């Protein structure tokens, strides 16, 4: 409970910080506009408004810059922008100084918003972690916090309950939904000696589980830890930008100080001219245009993506996506629909497909197992009428049996069938279906096996085309899944995927993504489940399915496909590439203008209004160039 309260307070403080920055930027803009409006008739009042605009909009950045200066002995861009704005105001250009503050404050608020959106990392994930377990000792059941559980304790897990911690089944049998850990779409049958994982959901049977790991060492706890560690890693590009900003700021401040002292002795300038040119340099050298080179383009591209059902949590993720060389896909719920469907009906003993389906669905309609629901759904889709069985009995981990129209029927695994009825032809056909990655259900009456039903998690309608479209733009595809090798190979072959990595636990998926990053550089990961969250976090770009995705996957991912449309990934990649081109254009132009103004000021001197026009004009131009991505982001972007 304490952890949740701390998380809530942290989220609240982030929201207050974001809201404060946005309000400060808006207030700065209002004051600046008022100053412009009355500047022609009340110059003194306009000056006061400009000063208030600078104070309101620049307070947070000035405080941050001073803290960096005091604690780290470094000059950053925050402080440089404040000094440049004050310098402009000191030589009579308060409006220009306020404009510098407005642009910088707005970009800071946007950056905070992007960071806050991506920082809600594992709040939903932690909520899935069990808090209590039922300890079974000397015939007594006691509910205890999972922190008090010790290795060797015996737990009882009742039907429908979440398994508290990792352990081994000592008695009982049930089907356990392990989707949160392995991604398996079909619950796994568990019996004595089988391992179970904390955070997974028990099915219809009761299990007695011996604890094998403490609450902090469970596989589910490792998932949370992996997400935390991955999100704390700072990308190389971010470290480079921070180093560049501080170096640039120190250079500009150093050159400005030199310009305030040396020219009267070196060039014979008057002190008035020296101060004037130094302030012009400080204004034209401020990195406003450089800052605007990236953010407006990123926000425009993100807005474009949002209209197409692509929700990015920050512009950097779009930039990273443009560099991706391989995309790793989870299987269940991502490449596939996440639920089994009937794919094959093989009748025997003069039965038709409809008769086999009618018998199987009539028995399965009383079961809650996912395979049973798939059989019943197929019968309803075909319009097959169902009968009501008598003496129904669910055999956990095996299937069901009941009387139907006076005859005894069984529906389930081959092990449930009478061995004498398992003829060679029936066994061979079942093996062929299993080799194709399908789950086999047999149907038997008193005379023998009357049919075989094959079920499989079907791939999404657009999966194959999406993989092909990515291949056309030079992006390879891989599958990393917790499913069995045979199933994974079958789905990969149907989808057209070449790289297949199967039978992976969440920590194995993380290691696989890291290996792909070492081989290909930038790697994206697409997933939908809690088990995918660590791999999503460690990838260059984590992509979650918006409709089918779990809360944990949605919170961890950098990009959410709102309509689960895999074809949109290519559109995002191409838009990211186009954005990269625009950003390079903007940066080259901004640097060229800054250098031109600096050399012009040092060589022959330029008027401050001309310097401000050149500086602010370049800023406006790079912003407008970035805004083009709002409407023409569909270009191929391969420049």
Automatic annotation (TrEMBL):
Subcellular compartments: Cell membrane
Record-linked CDD domains: P-type_ATPase_HM_ZosA_PfeT-like (cd07551)
Transmembrane segments: 23-56, 77-94, 247-267, 279-302, 587-606
SUPFAM superfamilies: Calcium ATPase, transduction domain A, Calcium ATPase, transmembrane domain M, HAD-like
Keywords: ATP-binding, Cell membrane, Ion transport, Magnesium, Membrane, Metal-binding, Nucleotide-binding, Phosphoprotein, Translocase, Transmembrane, Transmembrane helix, Transport
Gene3D superfamilies the record matches: Calcium-transporting ATPase, cytoplasmic domain N, Calcium-transporting ATPase, cytoplasmic transduction domain A, HAD superfamily/HAD-like
Signal peptide (UniProt feature, chain positions): none
InterPro entries: ATPase_P-typ_cyto_dom_N, ATPase_P-typ_P_site, ATPase_P-typ_TM_dom_sf, ATPase_P-typ_transduc_dom_A_sf, ATPase_P-type_domA, Cation_Transport_ATPase, HAD-like_sf, HAD_sf
Coiled coil: none
GO cellular component, one term: plasma membrane
Membrane topology: Multi-pass membrane protein
GO MF term list: ATP binding; ATP hydrolysis activity; ATPase-coupled monoatomic cation transmembrane transporter activity; metal ion binding
Chloroplast in keyword set: no
Domain P-type ATPase A positions: 128-228
Entry keyword annotation includes Glycosyltransferase: no
Pfam family, one: Hydrolase
PANTHER family on file: CADMIUM_ZINC-TRANSPORTING ATPASE HMA1, CHLOROPLASTIC-RELATED, PROBABLE CADMIUM/ZINC-TRANSPORTING ATPASE HMA1
Similarity section: Belongs to the cation transport ATPase (P-type) (TC 3.A.3) family. Type IB subfamily.
Listed name of the protein: Cadmium-translocating P-type ATPase
Originating organism: Cohnella nanjingensis
Origin organism lineage: Bacteria, Bacillati, Bacillota, Bacilli, Bacillales
């Amino acid at each position: 409970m304490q952890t949740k309260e701390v998380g809530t307070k942290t989220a609240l403080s982030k929201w207050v910080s974001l809201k404060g920055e946005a309000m400060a930027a808006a207030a700065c803009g209002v004051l600046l506009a008022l100053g412009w409006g009355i500047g022609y008739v009340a110059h003194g009042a306009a000056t006061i408004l400009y000063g208030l605009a600078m104070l309101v909009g620049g307070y947070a950045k000035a405080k941050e810059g001073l803290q960096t200066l005091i604690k780290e002995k470094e000059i950053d861009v925050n402080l440089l922008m404040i000094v440049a704005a004050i310098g402009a105001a000191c030589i009579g250009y308060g409006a220009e100084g306020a404009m510098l503050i407005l642009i910088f404050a707005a970009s800071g608020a946007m950056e905070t918003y992007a960071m806050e959106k991506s920082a809600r990392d594992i709040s939903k994930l932690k909520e899935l972690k069990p808090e209590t377990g039922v300890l079974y000792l000397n015939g007594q059941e006691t509910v205890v916090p999972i922190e008090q559980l010790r290795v060797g304790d015996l737990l009882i897990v009742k039907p429908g309950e979440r398994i508290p911690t990792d352990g081994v089944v000592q008695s009982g049998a049930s089907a356990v939904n392990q989707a949160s850990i392995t991604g398996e779409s079909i619950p796994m049958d568990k019996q004595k000696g089988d391992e179970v994982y904390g955070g997974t959901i028990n099915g219809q049977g009761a299990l007695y589980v011996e604890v094998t790991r403490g609450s902090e060492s469970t596989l589910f706890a490792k998932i949370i830890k992996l997400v935390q560690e991955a999100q704390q890693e700072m990308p190389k590009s971010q470290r480079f930008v921070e180093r560049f900003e501080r170096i640039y700021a120190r250079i500009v401040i150093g050159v400005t100080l030199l310009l305030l002292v040396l020219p009267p002795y070196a060039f014979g300038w008057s002190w008035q001219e020296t101060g004037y040119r130094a302030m012009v340099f400080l204004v034209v050298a401020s990195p406003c245009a450089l800052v605007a080179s990236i953010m407006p383009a990123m926000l425009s591209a993100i807005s474009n993506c949002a209209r197409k059902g692509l929700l990015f949590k920050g512009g950097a993720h779009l930039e990273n996506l443009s560099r991706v060389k391989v995309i790793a896909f989870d299987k269940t719920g991502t490449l596939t629909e996440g639920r089994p469907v009937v794919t094959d009906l093989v009748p025997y003993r003069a039965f038709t497909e409809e008769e086999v389906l009618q018998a199987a669905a009539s028995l399965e309609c009383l079961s809650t197992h996912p395979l049973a629901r798939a059989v019943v759904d197929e019968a309803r889709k075909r319009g097959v009428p169902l009968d009501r069985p008598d003496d129904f009995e669910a055999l956990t981990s095996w299937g069901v049996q009941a009387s139907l129209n006076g005859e005894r029927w069984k529906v389930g695994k081959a092990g449930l069938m009478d061995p004498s009825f398992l003829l060679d032809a029936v066994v061979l056909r079942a093996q062929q279906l299993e080799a194709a990655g399908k789950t086999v259900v047999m149907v038997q009456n008193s005379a023998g096996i009357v049919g075989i039903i094959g079920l499989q998690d079907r791939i999404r309608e657009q999966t194959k085309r999406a993989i092909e479209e990515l291949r056309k733009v030079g992006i390879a595809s891989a599958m990393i899944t917790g499913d069995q090798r045979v199933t994974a190979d079958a789905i990969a072959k149907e989808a057209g995927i070449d790289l297949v990595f199967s039978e992976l636990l969440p920590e194995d998926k993380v290691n696989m993504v890291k290996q792909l990053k070492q081989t290909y550089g930038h790697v994206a990961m697409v997933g939908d489940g809690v088990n995918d969250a660590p791999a999503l976090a460690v990838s260059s770009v984590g992509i979650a399915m918006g409709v089918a995705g779990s809360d944990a996957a949605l919170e961890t991912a950098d990009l959410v496909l709102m309509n689960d449309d895999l074809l949109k990934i290519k559109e995002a990649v191409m838009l990211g590439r186009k954005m990269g081109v625009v950003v390079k254009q903007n940066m080259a132009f901004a640097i060229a203008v800054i250098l031109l103004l600096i050399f012009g000021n040092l060589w022959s001197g330029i008027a401050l209004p001309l310097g401000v026009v050149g500086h602010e004009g370049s800023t406006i131009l790079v912003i407008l160039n970035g805004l083009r991505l709002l409407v023409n982001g569909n270009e191929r972007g391969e420049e």
